Every structure is written in structure tokens, then in C-alpha cells.
Amino acid sequence: MSLFDSFAMVDWSGGNDTGPTPRKDAIWACVVRDGKVRALDYLRNRVVAETWLRDLIETELAAGRRLFLGFDFPFGYSQGFTEAITGHDDPLALWDWLETQVEDSPNANNRFDLAGLINSRFGGKGPFWMNALRRDIDGLPRTKQDYHNPFPDRRAVETRAKGSFTCWQMAGAGSVGGQVMMGLPVLSRLRHAFDGKVAVWPFQPLDKPVAFVEIWPSLNLGSAPPDQIKDAWQVEQVALTLSRLSDQELTEQLDVSAPEEGWILGVPQDRPNIAPPPLRNDCFALPAGVNWTPVDEALALLQSRLHPVTGIETVPLLQSVGLVLAEDVVAKRSNPPQPNTAVDGYGFAGPAADGAQVMPLTEGRAAAGIPFDGQVPPGHALRILTGATLPKGVDTVILEEDVTLKDGHIAFRGPLKKGANTRRAGEDVVEGDTALSARRKLTPADMALLSAVGIAEVPVHQALRVAVLSTGDELVELGDAAGAGQIFDANRPMLMSLIGRMGFVPVDMGRVEDNRDALRQRLDEAAAQADVILTSGGASAGDEDHVSALLRDAGAMQEWRIALKPGRPLALGMWSDTPVLGLPGNPVAAMVCTLIFARPALSLMSGEGWVEPQGFEVPAAFEKRKKPGRREYLRARLRDGRVEVFHSEGSGRISGLSWAEGLVEIEDGARHIQPGDPVRFIPYGSFGL
Ligand code: AMP
Ligand code: MG
Q: Are residues 545 and 644 located together in one domain of the fold?
């Protein structure tokens, strides 16, 4: 048995009777059963429509058929409204309340008065607006100028359905506010007339023979063929389309949660924030028999084994800077949206010929945001200011500095090319183009770009949370007294701030002594709170190297011996499905390994993809002999176009990290660098710091 036998769609109207001739602004309804159109009816007003609906429901019930009845107006208002009006958050209570308030007859109704009355309860400036009547109505603003809406302007679904109107706008082409107010009382009466036979989606389970469902034909349909009435064509298309869905497809579309505001069938709900599958337990396995892994091989291995680990959510643009786009973002508007002038000056129809030009000035002016409505006649010029939309008759602008002004005329010297000093519509970005691609880590510049092209919210990967944990019996907390043999924990403040600068969220997991139980417990806590765990210390294979020992015991640890200086082995493993990057304890090695290994690994896991730092060749200001077999990173900085290195390569010299402004990278082979030889310098900034 299929979910429904008959599919009827209704395109509602909030207006009055439009007469006997089928017209677009009245009510249209279509019934499809067994794949065939059974009726396509013009219903000239709501009284006719209500009778038609009663007859339909009666017929379908009598025949034992299940009826899907779609209406193209919201079944609920934005969050909070129902409760404010009825004292309950049950939208069906609001239906009943409206039923008692609305007066409707084919030629007149009280929708504007009722909107004004409701507004008066909230201070008289909203939530409803627009009055199509000649007479003023107390509390109902005619325009949005003095409008204040105490409720969200849009329902959640409307922020996802491009081009939808709000339920608050009571009049104007395409608006639905009037339709909701004039439609819900009818649905309320029908629901009670067929008590127990009707379920309302998505507020009630659809376990009755009749379902009322909110639809919006413009959601998926293109424009109607030119010889057809749009509303008639649309109800037919929607009815046919829905009747052709499999039960499973329809069930999926109907599976939404929107307890108060309702939803539009077919608009996908936010994907539940299910994190992607965890990394494989063996993702850090190294090829057998390898002794010292070259840096590039280690990096390639990380790149091939890791994938994004955070969920996806939609956030307002202002909260998105630094986050990673999960999908391509398409421009909703061109930039610039209209052709405009790039300078202050005088606009006319170009080109201007060589030699002296005199043009009479047209009265008025065009400024940014204040367009000139008229037409500038050929041979005339108009005062125009930077950013102003080019008025009709203007395609070229002469700079005001190049013009003399006298007796209502301008004079200047040509030639001037057609289009000079203007910007074409869409010359920067065209509506529909991809403005930014998935994996983009959003920058302040992107905020301007996305705003300009009308993007108010963006799908992003949730920020990657990185737990930072120090290990070692010798460590004391900054501010505590440090006894003999003790040192302050220097890594955690460094790593926490590195994580933050690189655009991830640091989670402070404190310090833990070299004790397996304590470490085990802390790793459990870290795994519960973060997407990745970064430890420092204890990563080698010594007696007190508990990080590696624990991970080894858990069967998920690899000691990566990388041919790299400075750096001791990295311990890489999985702890309760959470990747652990075990850095060396030595702060210099810990920082270098973070920049070279952890950063691209974390970027990949954050959804940004693999990142490589941009370096460049600069003449060396130093001499150095290097043996083959491992890659070296020297603490370095640029001075007078040459790169100098810290006087000591000692890996305990933390001050060299501060002295430096980047790293010199020396390739794996042997090298004898003389002053003036090119070496590769990577500024800290290239690591995102
Ligand atoms: P480990 O990797 O635990 O053998 O430590 C190597 C060196 O780094 C030792 O000298 C440690 O004392 C030092 N060290 C380890 N952790 C830290 C830390 N959080 N801050 C400063 N030094 C550290
Ligand atoms: Mg240690």
C-alpha cells in the first residue's frame, strides 16, 4: 500500500474575488490520482475553495483513499508568535484563534485590520507590515521604514529557501502574509469538520487518511510555459511530481522536525551534525623495515592516511572568519549589481570625440544609493557621484577635475572612450558564479566578498578542537615554586597559542606526571573533549616515555623516527578513535615538529585540506656544512635581503625560537652553504602564525 492515493495541490490567495475569468491571482487546485490529472480547477474565491476542499475530502474518505493535500502558504509563524498570541506554543491553537478573528467574504476581509490589531499588542510597529488599503490602519506600518518586528523575520525554513517571502508582509506581489492569515482559518475549519481524519504536517504524525502539507511550488519549478497560467501550471506540476515519488522518497522528505514554525516540503533540513567516520586505527602504521623515514615520505604518509574529522554546520557570516568552507559558495548577487561610476564627475552617452566638448547639464544628479530616475538625453550630461548607478542614457563619465562648469553647461577636452570611468555590472563577480570554493579558510577579505554578493550564512566545518597536554615529572606550572631539578612547563603555553594562531581551538589538558594511570585517565578526558590530542614529552622509547608506551599497549601507536633535525621520534597513534600526535619534549623540537608535521595534519583533519608553507630562496648570510641523511631546520630571520641563522643550533636554546622570524630549510642531502648561496627561508607567517 502506498502512503497516499491522491495528491491535491492548492495555490492559495489572500485577496478578494477576482471574477469568473480564470486568472493568475485567484486560487488554483489540481488533483492527481494514479498518475493522471483528475481535476485542474479555478476557484475564484476562498468560499468556493472551501466548498471544493470539503467535497474533495468527503469524496476521498468515502472512497477509502488516502489524500495528500498541499497548500502553498506557511502553516506556522516565526518562533515565539504562537505563544505570544495564544499562551501555548501549539501552532494549531493559533489556527483556531485566527479562525475566531478573521472575517472573510468574497469581496472583503479584515486582514489588514487584524494585522494592525495584533501589532498594537506589540507596540504598533510590527510584526506585520504593509497596508494595501487607502485608509490608514492603526498599528500597521505601510513601509518598512518605521517597522520593528519583535519576532524573527523569517522562519528557519525560509532562511534556507531562496526567494521566499516572510509571513509578516501583508501585501505586495508574491507576499504570503495575507494568504497565511486568510488560509489558516479555512484549514482550521476543515480540520474540525473532519475531526480525527486529518493530520497536519509537520506538527502531527501522518497517521490519518488526510494529510495537510505545506508546499511551495516555486521551490523547484522553473518558469511556466508562456501560454499557461503560472499558478495552474505549478499546482499541476507539483501534484504530478509528488505523486511520482516512491514511498521512501516521500517519507524522507516528510521526515523533518519543526515543532512550531512548520516547514516547506522539499527543503532539506540541516544535516544532523554527525561527525565523519573516525580515522582507521592503523592510520599511522609505517611500512615495515624502515629505519629513518625521510621528511617528505612522512608527510606523504600523513596526507594519504588522514581525512576531515569534524561535522558541518551553517553559521552566520560574521561568525565564520577563520573557519573552513564545507561547500562551494555561489554568489546570490553580482558585484557590482548595477553599472555604476567609479569617480565623481559628469555622466553622458559616450564616446566623446577628440577636441573641445560642451554639453548642457540635465537637472538633478545621481549619487550612491540615490539613483537618478529619469533619462539623460543624448548630448546632455548629468552630475554623478562615485558609486551611483548609471542612469538611462549614461555609459561614460568624465572626471570632475577635467571639467569646467558654466551657465548650466560642462566643457572638457575629448577624446573619451565609451565606458570610461565606469564599472560594469558583474565585472567583479557575476551572480551564480562560485564566489569561494569548499576548503577555503575564511579571511577578513572574504567577509567583504561574501557580503557584497549577498551571502548571509555559510556552511563550514566545525572548528577543529585540539587538546594540548604536557608530560614529565620535572614540569611545574608557571607561577608555582620550582625546586631543584624542576623546570617550568614551556611547551603548553607555546603549543596552545600555536594551535590558536593556526586557526584551531586549543583545549588545555594541563600537565600530567610520568605515570601511566594518570596519563591514561588524562588521555581519556582529552579524547572526550577534543578531535585531536597533541602531547609533548615522553614520546621516545625510554623508560619514562609513557605516551609511547601507553599507545603501544593500546596497540595503536607508531614511533615515527623521522630523518629530521631538530626532532626526536614522534609518537603517532589512536586513543579511543582520537588521533594522538606525540611531540618531542624539547621545546625547539616541539615547535619545529608542530610547524612541519602537525600543522598540515591538523589542517587536513579540519577540512581545509593539506597545506604547504610558502618559502622562498634568499642568499645566506652564514656558512654551514651539513652531512647527508636528514633534513634540517634552522632558526632564522631576514636582514637586509639575506637570511641569518641563530648563533647556536643547540636544541635547548628556546631563546633562538624567539629571536627567529622563520626557519631555513636545508634539504636531506649533504651541503656546504657559503655566504651568498641561495637557501630556502620559510617565514613564521607562512605557517599561519
Ligand atoms: P622527553 O621528550 O620527555 O624526553 O623530554 C625531552 C626534553 O624536553 C627534556 O629535557 C624535558 O625536560 C624537556 N621537556 C619536556 N617537556 C617539556 C615542557 N613541557 N616544557 C619544557 N621542557 C620540556
Ligand atoms: Mg619526559
A: no
